[in-house]
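Audit log entry. Action: structure prediction of a protein-small molecule complex. Ligand: fe (ii) ion. The ligand was supplied as SMILES and no pocket hint was given, so placement is left entirely to the predictor. Protonation state taken as written. Sequence taken verbatim from the request; no trimming, no tag removal. Recorded inputs:
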Amino acid sequence: MAELVGVFASSHGPMIVRSWSTLGPAPKESLTAAFTELGRRIRAARADALVVISPDHWVNFFIDNLPGICVGVGETHDGPPEPWFKAFPHRTIPGHPQLANHIVETAFQRDFEPSVSYKLALDHGFCIPLWKAGIDPLPPIVPIVLNDLEPPHPSVKRCFAWGSMLAEAVASYPGRLRVAILATGGLSHSIGEPDMGRIDEAFDRECLRRFEAGDPQGLFGFLNERLGQAGNGAAEVRNWVAAHGAARGRGFELIKYDPIPDVYVGCGFASWKV
Ligand SMILES: [Fe+2]
């Protein structure tokens, strides 16, 4: 039996890396403090494998082939291909095909039909939190791409169910393994839209309050009403909902929230008590 030893969430706005050298001291200090605490909590979980849920930012998939959910089942994954992310120290990232395939098998038993990939490149969505939180050495990663980029998106209710299924898959894994889950993305941001750079702080704070309240139905209702108006990047909150599902909708602990205009993102960091 494997054990779920931690559930975490982190923003991953690319400007956190692209603009790092030109950020002022306040956002730098804020982000450094958040990533440091996130990293401390992830390392304290002593995970043998890390399931990371992130969107794919047009690196592996495009509108000619756009799965709702894709599980990376490869022995290895490629590091971030973004030309501005060459400082990432790993060109290859170890996978955990046994756990990944068990997740896929469990998913099909629970009426999900994810696609699979034996060769994913893990872009900044996966790698910024791993890098900035200081997760080194990297444990084997099971990457799960959730389509937050281009409609149709999986519903928030379905994302929660997906997370619950992940927890079941971990619990039924036939082997001793400590598994943590890290969801990345959000909170509100707008990219390539007329209001690019807008952060919907009211949405973010209410969203965090709903996670803390531990009321999944209330969270679904709020997100179904407001998610579409908080910038296209807010769609990535679906990954947090999946993490919330893995934690059975309980135990949310905010590490930090800071709406940082310099990186265009309402930056959020959290963990769940499991
Ligand atoms: Fe993103």
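Audit: result stored. The chain is about 35% helix and 20% strand. Residues 12, 55, 57, 125, 185, 233, 236 surround fe (ii) ion (CB under 6 Å).
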